Amino acid sequence: MKKQKKIKIYSSSTCSNCSAAKEFIKEKGYDYQEKNVLTDKEAKKELLSMGYMGVPVIFVDDQVIVGFNKNKLDEML
User: In this structure, what DSSP letter does residue 32 have?
Assistant: First the structure.
């Protein structure tokens, strides 16, 4: 059995790359925590306070990917 990684995705409802990233992670058999910056003001504040302006921003354990980079995400999972 795979070791579960701690995955958090900052996304928005209108972001196609966010949807693709979430689908990709699900296909790999991982669970994730989603923070939607359109519906969650705290999530938006968190993201901006870290210096990120766009989504998706994906955290896998202590690593971060900005945007949906399938190859890099695959390596991290």
Answer: -
Question: Strands 33-36 and 7-11, how do they pair?
Answer: parallel
Assign 57 to helix, strand or coil.
strand
C-alpha–C-alpha distance, residues 23 and 41, integer Å: 24
Question: What is the tens place of the pLDDT at every residue in 3-20?
Answer: 689 999 999 999 999 999
Domain that holds residue 56: 7-76
Whether residue 61 has pLDDT greater than 80: yes
Would residue 16 count as lying in a domain?
yes
Q: What is the mean pLDDT of residues 18-44?
A: 97
Domain count, the chain: 1
Tokens of 28: 């790999």
